[in-house]
Amino acid sequence: MSTAIETPTDTAKTEQIRIRFKGLLDGTNKENPKPQDVKALSDLLKGNKSLELWRTVYSAAQFAELTIIENASAVAGVKECWKHRLASLRKELGHDEAPILEQLLIQQVALCWLKLSLVELRYSSVMKQSITLALGMYWEKRLTAAQNRFTRACETLARVRRLSRNTPALQLNIAADGGQQLNITQ
What is the pTM of this model? Predict the structure, then answer.
């Protein structure tokens, strides 16, 4: 494997591409962007795949996290702490070192944990009041749904990790002459 050494010219060119990307992204992040700007952005992304320019934009899951936090009933300082807690949770679950499938599942676990925590918070607030049976049932169902989603996300992550790390040996069953079975493990 050869390692390429980036020259100052390459660095300057890369920086120009990144600046162009930022400009096109800003120009297309509005209600009705110009079709030629969208095409130019698409062409820039396709023509510079090795730079992975798209990584600088939040994923849908990251945007969902931010939206959930921003819409939560909490002060700005608490919301900022929640963002850091989510980042820490992902790190503790091994996001950075995990294969891509596990990274996606870790992101889902973190998102489900956030939703569950916020539903728990709201549930606790509602339940300390005198409420109707219908409202109580609504919050019970909402809490149960959030708990189920979180549990399924955790179970799926655990299952994928177990399957990817503990791949059992391949076993072949071969019928030999005389009706005897021969088991070969590789």
Answer: 0.71
